[in-house]
Design a protein that fits this description.
Elements (H helix, E strand, L loop, with lengths): L1 H11 L2 H29 L11 E9 L6 H9 L4 E6 L1 E9 L2 E10 L2 H6 L5 E2 L12 E4 L1 H8 L9 E4 L2 E8 L11 E6 L11 E6 L5 H19 L6 E9 L9 H31 L1 H9 L4 H37 L16 H27 L3 H6 L11 H32 L10 E8 L8 H16 L4 E9 L6 E4 L9 E2 L2 E5 L3 H4 L4 E4 L12 E5 H7 L9 E4 L9 E7 L19 E5 L8 E7 L6 H12 L4 E7 L2 H42 L1 H9 L4 H31 L14 H27 L3 H7 L1
Parallel strand pairs: 4-9, 6-8, 16-21, 18-20
Antiparallel strand pairs: 1-10, 1-11, 2-10, 3-4, 3-7, 5-8, 6-9, 7-8, 12-22, 12-23, 13-16, 13-22, 14-15, 14-19, 17-20, 18-21, 19-20
Helix pairs in contact: 1-9, 2-7, 2-9, 2-10, 2-17, 7-10, 7-12, 7-17, 9-10, 12-17, 12-19, 12-20, 13-16, 17-20, 18-21, 19-20
Length: 792
């Protein structure tokens, strides 16, 4: 009790020291905890379902001329003693109008009891009631769909979507990772019992408490054997079997960027520990005479160690309270900033868990141990006889050398994080400022797939369908122009020019795209030489338009217009095609994939017969000011295309916007950690320089009395601070560039060894640290020789 009372009194006499130390620990603990919560959500994902270990998706499979109905299978499984409950869902991939887009999504038709069996609660809104079962008017959507298509609004506000000709009002949004019974499910529509004549081979069961998978397998085996005897009686029939999958979400694999986030969080925590340790060392220097006096009066060295440890522990407790507040704020910021699309990229919303709290507790204990052990040992080593003989006036400039290395290490870590944050910030700025050279908001991308089965369609039939779809799109009200995009025919890897007859070798095939007329007008690209594609070009052997860079590579000393090109080598059976034009190559790759950088590959466009059976894309340019064009285009395509087909209509720059969202989120995380490290480093340097300056007040007074100017004193203090800052930046710059390579795959247009990012981080650290040291420097400048000498 006496030690605690003494600790309380000493800390109350130093409110500034307590504030800086506690806030340092609080900021570090809060931010590191929020990162731990984010990583924990990836490696130990929580399920939104009640007792998820008892929930399983079960599929019953077989092949017979006559298949059992869904009701037959469900009743057989429900009768098993191991099964507590079972719900069957029918599903299909259908075109859904959601927000301003049309997309092909997985839709599940379930009973309202399905949600009760799962034990899930909506994140927003409510679940359907028994009265709404089969009402064909309400729907529940996934968290990802709500974020991606409805802006993650806080309330549903009668938002609606359309599936085919039916419109549904969204009444609820399920929490993340609630995409059951299939991981791709985006939409749930309540319905009554499945039709008896329809066989659905997947259901969700909840096992009774205490029943294992082995117990269930023993009970379900007779069911499959009975189905085989009843239905699979032919020689070519396949026996019935089942598959069982627990609905607990799988953990995600950590990538380099995730490991970089963990390392950055640990670095911030380490800076805070070093900060407190430096403060305690500086404080120990001031209290050295007090420790010596207590030792001379009979106190043991263990008493001194215990007092220092108690002080650090008290700071850790206060810091933990501040850390809890910071962590709550940081987790909230990350939740709001996490784009819905990032769940497919390895990021999910942070979550609180026992593991996170345990990691935070370990961090607090480690902070006490790391930041208290060295100061406690240093204080207990005080020599009473030697210290009491010394004057109490202060020390010389050598006072800070004992913990100068600690501040330099702290600033080096801060510099490492600042370089990483600077690289990510530059990348995010470059992406957000990217100029497509056109009004991307007026463009839409349409992805269409006409399945070549039921009935089997020939390539010519598919080509006719796609051309008809293009005609239908161009006729939609609000469409200014539209073009079709397909793959170039064949799987060629080289391209041959007519110069090969003169001895030139075939060249690597440029990025090749088969497009229709109006393509360049739709994407606002200018023909630099020759002409654009015209009607009829695709009817013969086809014609080619090159971008400027490709034209120069294939025909370096002459005009490309009028020359001939064929896909493949000289012996290939592909036809020769005439080059009719050259288009300006500014950022042409963004026409197909906005995530690619400008001029990342050569580009060749051709207008030829469409022989591709793969996905086809359409680019649509709407009239300025037109509203609802994407939905209208999606409906027109869906009404025209034969079944089964799929249509997806999204903004032209959708992939690019997703990448920008991911970049901004990562920049936010690393900027928070970098800013925290900068603030902690500046606070540590400020505190240490302040203590050193207070210890050297007698020296400064003597210097002034002997003729030194007050500017000389300021320079003396700032010079010592600058030496520590320069040492830290020099060490941290190297580590920062090394850490940048861990983030390289998440950066756009930035190389990890980036001079601008490095200089910016160094300048920021030096300016902030020097500003932090101005106050103690000015205080030293005001030292009055007479007053100081009287006090000693």
């Amino acid at each position: 009790m006496e030690s605690l009372s003494r600790t309380s009194r000493t800390l109350r006499r130093s409110p500034g020291f307590v504030a800086i130390a506690a806030l340092s620990l609080g900021a570090a603990l809060g931010l590191s905890t929020s990162v731990f919560a984010l990583i924990d959500a990836m490696t130990h994902p929580n399920s939104p379902f009640r007792d998820v270990d008892r929930l399983y998706s079960i599929g019953v499979y077989g092949k017979a001329p006559v298949m059992p109905s869904s009701k037959d299978v469900r009743d057989a499984l429900a009768a098993l003693p191991a099964v507590e409950g079972i719900e069957t869902a029918t599903w299909s991939w259908v075109d859904v109008e959601a927000g301003e887009t049309v997309g092909n999504m997985s839709v599940s038709y379930v009973s309202v009891d399905f949600f009760k069996l799962m034990g899930v609660r909506p994140r927003i809104g409510r679940l359907p009631t028994p009265e709404e079962n089969g009402s064909d008017g309400v729907a529940v959507v996934s968290d990802e769909l709500w974020k991606m298509r409805f802006g993650n609004a806080r309330e549903t506000h009668n938002a609606h979507l359309s599936v085919g000709t039916h419109q549904y009002t969204i009444i609820g949004v399920l929490p993340p990772r609630a995409n059951a019974p299939w991981d791709a499910t985006s939409l749930w529509i309540p319905q009554r019992e499945p039709t008896a004549g329809i066989f659905t081979n997947s259901s969700v069961i909840r096992l009774r408490n205490g029943v294992s998978e082995k117990d269930f397998s023993a009970q379900v085996k007779p069911v499959t054997e009975r189905l085989t005897k009843t239905f699979a009686t032919g020689a070519n029939d396949r026996p019935f079997s089942y598959s069982l999958r627990n609905l607990r979400p799988d953990p995600l694999t950590l990538r380099d960027v995730h490991k970089a986030m963990i390392g950055a969080a640990l670095c911030v925590l380490l800076i805070a520990c070093a900060n407190v340790a430096a403060l305690m060392l500086a404080r120990g220097t001031i209290r050295k005479r007090d420790y010596a006096l207590r030792l001379a009066l009979g106190a043991t060295r263990r008493d001194i160690e215990r007092e220092v440890i108690f002080e650090v522990a008290a700071l850790a407790i206060v810091g933990s309270v501040a850390g809890a507040i910071v962590a709550t704020w940081a987790v909230g910021v990350m939740k709001r900033a996490t784009p819905g699309e990032m769940s497919f990229m390895g990021f999910v919303e942070p979550q609180w868990s026992v593991r996170v709290l345990a990691l935070s507790a370990i961090a607090v204990i480690a902070a006490v141990g790391v930041s208290g052990a060295i100061p406690a040992w240093q204080a207990s080593r005080t020599d009473p006889a030697g210290t009491l003989k010394e004057s109490s006036g202060g020390t010389t400039g050598r006072a800070g050398t004992r913990f100068r290395w600690l501040i330099m290490a702290e600033l080096a870590i801060s510099m490492t994080l600042l370089v990483g944050a600077s690289l990510m910030l530059k990348s995010a700025v470059l992406m957000s400022r990217y100029d497509f050279g056109l009004d991307a908001s007026r463009l839409s991308n349409i992805t269409v797939s006409v399945y070549g089965r039921l009935p089997v369609r020939t390539t010519a039939e598919l080509s006719t369908i796609y051309r008809g779809a293009l005609t239908r799109v161009r006729a939609v009200l609000g469409v200014e122009s539209a073009a079709m995009i397909a793959l170039c025919p064949g799987l060629w890897t080289v391209v041959t020019t007519d110069r090969s007859i003169e001895g030139s070798k075939p060249a690597t095939l440029p990025q090749c795209t088969n497009v229709s007329t109006d393509y360049f007008r739709s994407v606002s690209r200018t023909i630099a030489e020759g002409r654009d594609f015209a009607d009829g070009d695709a009817q013969g052997d086809g014609v080619v338009i090159l971008d400027e860079k490709t034209a120069h590579r294939l025909f370096p000393h002459e005009s490309a217009v009028g020359r001939m090109i064929k896909l493949g080598n000289l012996r290939a059976a592909s036809p020769w095609m005439s080059v009719v034009g050259v288009v300006k190559n500014k950022d042409m790759n963004f026409n197909m994939n906005p995530e690619l950088g400008p001029d990342s590959a050569d580009v060749m466009f051709m207008s030829a017969r469409d022989s591709s059976r793969q996905l086809h894309k359409f680019v649509v340019k709407s009239i300025q000011g037109a509203v609802g064009t994407r939905v209208a285009v999606g409906r027109a395509m869906r009404d025209f295309l034969p079944k089964p087909s799929s249509v997806t209509v999204v903004p032209w720059a959708n992939d690019f916007n997703v990448a920008v969202g991911e970049e901004r989120f990562l920049t936010l995380v690393f900027s928070l950690l970098g800013a925290a490290s900068l603030a902690l480093g500046a606070a540590g340097l400020f505190s240490v320089v302040s203590y050193i300056a207070s210890q050297r007040m007698r020296e400064f007074a003597v210097r002034i009395a002997l003729g030194a100017t007050r500017e000389n004193v300021v320079t003396l203090v700032l010079r010592d601070a600058l030496a520590m800052a320069l040492g830290g930046t020099a060490i941290g710059a190297g580590f920062g560039m090394w850490a940048g390579f861990m983030l390289w795959d998440k950066m756009y247009g930035v190389y990890p060894v980036d001079v601008a990012a490095l200089v910016g981080a160094e300048a920021t650290l030096l300016v902030v640290t020097m500003l932090a040291c101005l106050v103690p420097a000015l205080r030293a400048m005001k030292a009055n020789p007479v007053d100081v000498m009287r006090a000693t």
